[in-house]
Each structure stands twice: as structure tokens, then as C-alpha cells.
């Protein structure tokens, strides 16, 4: 089961409320695994989505438990549940495959989601909340993503949120050539943003972070300039574009601070792109004269305007992912039903042997060749029935309907107890 919200179902101001964050993820994983109905869980938390990937012993119980958890931990109101989606069984499997392959991203085809999924999976292992059930599914999702990228042109253009942000900057400024850019944050998203901006012709890219060594390392790797965090204001006065993408859980640029900054800039406009969740820049900055603020919701609109050229390439990837999900679902169904089918085959073989023995007794003396021929026919009938039931079991939707069908088959072919067996309490068969 997958329960979550993303850029399609919730604006950034809603998404940031339910942001988990790396520092809280270990505790959140352990808390959610202990909820009723949940056996294993992986939390995928990015700027565009927060999803709980769950292996549930009971879907309804697990969903209600998680709803209660979100209410307790995040103060979620009942009306906010509409921002969350709940996908079960096959739909959840397809969603996971699409997410990891970059088909469900704001920037369709982005490759960052693969490393994000690996990190989420690793955190779940560290917390001890992922193993027997979810491990093979997540591993398969990553294999599918690799296949999509190696066998199609999907993602070949290096699509990513930072590249989309650079495109947005071009739309805002007309061009980034010769522009001075300042980036607040020294993580992976900041590094990718710096590379995209410099490749597009930015004159200088300055990097600042609360930990100066991190800013130095990043600046050195991209060919930028490191700035001490306490010196950021004098450099912000000269910047044409300011991009923020820190992991800070609170605002780092307020309206009052930007208002004072704009006064010192003497009428020169400054443009902000906030790629962080939670947001790094106070929304009220939009009201400051001379300041222009864009966040992930604005980026989504810009991406949608430029999606046309990628739709054809995405269609091939969609087909591949859908086929992979269908095949994997059948494999899971086969593995899940294997013990039931083994018991069923044993019971059918037993019925076949009993009928051969009964016929031999009723027919009197039979030549060995006749008895062998009759036994062969019965065996073929047993094989045909077992194969038909196995196919039917595999084709049933995973979950309640499949379990019901399995129970019905078990009841249909279970050994019937005679009076003597009932008296002494002997059971048997598949029941």
C-alpha cells in the first residue's frame, strides 16, 4: 500500500507541513512500523512528495492507523485527508515503479529520484523497518528504472528540478548569461543547480552554507565561489538571482530582511527561486517592492508549459513500466499462492489415486497395461484441473478476492472425514 501526497495533490504550503526530514525519519519509520496493520514501511520524502510505502497485514487497519498517526504528529485535520492518496496492491506497485523511473516526477524523466529512493531504502534498513516483504519490491523498482534508462531515450536529456529551475530563471531574466547568482545551501540539489546555471552562461555562482567547509567543497567542485554565511548580506546586494535549497526546517529569509536588502539595492530588482521543502523564504516576500519570489508551485507551472516535447519519449517508458509491473504482480501472486497450489496438487493426486484404486477394485482383474493407461488418463485430468486453478488464482487481484478464491478451492477439494475420523479427531487435507 502507498499512502502519500505529492505536487499534484497538494501545494507546497501543504506538502511542507507533512515533511519528515532526514533528522526525524528514523523515529518516524519506527513509529509507523509499530502501528496496527503495518508490518514494514519505507518513507520517501522529497521536495515534491512524502509517501509511506507499506506492507500491510490489513489495508483498512493500516490506513486508519496511519491517519491517526498523521493527526497526532502533524495535527492533520480531517479535511486535509483529501490531499492524500491511498493506493493498494497492483495500483501501489505500479505507482512505486513509475515514481522510481521518473514518470511521476514534476520534471518527467528526472534521475535524482533513483538516488532518493536508494537513500530512503537505506534509512528504512537502518531503522529496521524494511526486509522480507518490501526489499524485493523496492529492488525490482530500481531494476525497472535502470532498464527504462538503458533501453529508451527517457531521461537522456538529464532532466532534473535544478535544470527546470534554470529554465525558469531564463524565462524570468530573459537570459542568465553574465548574471551573478547566489545559492544558499550546499547539498546535491544546490550542486546540480550551480552546474546548470554555469553551463547556461552565469557569470559567477556564489555558494554559502552555515558550514563554510561544505560551501568550499561544493564551490570547488563546480567552479564557483564560497561565501561565509555571516558575509552573505553584502553579496546578496549584488546578486541578480538567489536560489535557496537548504535542508533547514524553517525560514532563513524573512520579509523584513528582504525589505532591508531591497532598500540597499537602490531599486535594482532581485529574483528568488526557492526549491526547498519546507520553504526557505517567507511567502510574504512576494509583497516586497523590487523582490520577485518563485517557489516549487511556480516551477511546476513552468515545467507543464514545456512538457509537450517529452510526452512522446515518456509514452515508451510508460509502456515498459506497465509491462514490468504486470509481470512482477504475476510473479508475486505465484509465490504467494505456491503453498496453496502445492497442497491442492497433493490433494488432487490423492483423489486420482483413490479413483484408480476404486476402479481397479470394481472392474475386477485388469491387465497391467490397462491399469497403467487408466492411471495415465487420470493423471492428465488432475494436471489439467490443477493448471486451470493455478492460472485462475494468479489472475485474481491480489488481496481479499484472491484469498477468498483460494479458500473456496481449499474447501472444494478438502478431504471429507468419515464417521471414524470425526470420532477420533483426525483431520487432513488442505483445511
Keywords:
431 residues, Beta Polymerase, domain 2, 56% helix, Rossmann fold, 10 strands, elongated
Written account of the structure:
With 431 residues, this protein is of the alpha/beta class. The protein has three domains: 2-151, Glutamyl-tRNA reductase, N-terminal domain (Beta Polymerase, domain 2), CATH 3.30.460; 161-305, NAD(P)-binding Rossmann-like Domain (Rossmann fold, 3-Layer(aba) Sandwich); 325-424, no CATH class. Helices cover 56% and strands 12% of the residues. It has helices at residues 12-15, 22-33, 59-74, 89-100, 112-127, 134-151, 161-173, 188-199, 212-222, 232-236, 255-264, 296-305, 308-363, 368-395, 400-413, 419-424, and strands at residues 2-6, 38-45, 49-56, 85-87, 180-184, 204-209, 225-228, 241-244, 270-274, 291-294. The strands form two sheets. It has a six-stranded parallel beta sheet with strand order 7-6-5-8-9-10, sandwiched between helices. The protein is elongated. The two termini are 29 Å apart.
Number of E-state strands: 10
Compute the number of helices.
Answer: 16
And the CATH topology of the largest domain?
Beta Polymerase, domain 2
Nearest-integer average pLDDT:
88
Rg, Å, rounded: 30 Å
Order of helices and strands: EHHEEHEHHHHEHEHEHEHEEHHHHH
Under the CATH scheme, the architecture of the largest domain is 2-Layer Sandwich
Number of domains: 3
Main sheet overview? 6 strands, parallel
CATH class of the largest domain: Alpha Beta
CATH superfamily of the largest domain: Glutamyl-tRNA reductase, N-terminal domain
